[in-house]
């Protein structure tokens, strides 16, 4: 894990962090450490903890999360990065992380082309378009994606039920089954809530097909989904960026709308007639 020749030690740490799944707290520690080079490579866990405002065990857990056996091994790699790399002449600026995230999302969106043109996308559209009502589930970090999809899905589908509450998700799945729903759309972004996986399994036991939008096809529950669509997240910031998942969601909606053009047109026109009632015209 040594620094590449000619690479600034800060870049080495950024690249290393991007290769591992870190918690928001751990990402924040990394960001603060970026402004502490080269001295950070010679500090103890206690000193780093004091300077970054976290506990000593949190710093130790960061080291293991980055793939090291312990903090000692991590610090040795840091020192090697400082010695063999090219020290930066300035502290990293906050917007550098944003630029990195944008580049990550560009790559994610480019890769999404393969997803929306694959057979799995066709299968997902067929399953979701044929279900009345259509259930949409997204808990915790995935709640905003579920609400986003549901908001627009109600414009083109006769019945859409969105659940973003982990305490009631099992009841929602059961009610959807009793209402003869045949498919559910489940958003499952990291970290994967246990309630999301439980809802996926319950849906299958009740005979409903499941379309899962996750950040990777290698998610631990991938084999339990009828269709899994991967929308990678960008991890360069404190919190994940879900740009690819948003584009995939709207692409799904567009394809579902195309399965019944007449119904879509009628429902959109009905919605359009209400626009003047809820839009303020200055």
Mean pLDDT: 87
Question: How would you spell out the order of helices and strands?
Answer: HHHHHHHEHEHEHEEHHH
Please state how the strands of the largest beta sheet are arranged side by side.
2-1-3-4-5
* Rg for CA atoms: 23 Å
Main β-sheet description = 5 strands, parallel
For the terminal residues, how far apart are their CA atoms?
59 Å
Q: How helix-rich are the residues, as a percent range?
A: 40-55%
The best one-word shape is elongated
Q: Which consecutive residue ranges, at least 5 long each, have pLDDT under 50?
A: 1-6, 86-95
Number of DSSP helical runs: 13
Q: Count every beta strand, where a strand is a DSSP E run of 2 or more residues.
A: 5
Assembly context of the chains: single chain
Percent of sequence in beta strands: 5-15%
SS-based class: alpha/beta
List the helices and strands and how they pair.
Layout: H1 9-18, H2 24-34, H3 45-52, H4 56-65, H5 71-84, H6 94-116, H7 119-129, E1 134-138, H8 143-156, E2 160-163, H9 169-178, E3 183-188, H10 194-205, E4 209-214, E5 227-230, H11 243-258, H12 261-272, H13 275-278
Parallel strand pairs: 1-2, 1-3, 3-4, 4-5
Can you describe what's shown?
This protein is an alpha/beta fold and 282 residues long. It is built from 13 helices and 5 strands. It has helices spanning 9-18, 24-34, 45-52, 56-65, 71-84, 94-116, 119-129, 143-156, 169-178, 194-205, 243-258, 261-272, 275-278, and strands at residues 134-138, 160-163, 183-188, 209-214, 227-230. It has a 5-stranded parallel beta sheet with strand order 2-1-3-4-5, sandwiched between helices. Strand 3, helix 10 and strand 4 (209-214) form a beta-alpha-beta unit. It is elongated, with a radius of gyration of 23 Å. The relative contact order is 0.12. Residues 1-6 and 86-95 have low confidence and may be disordered.
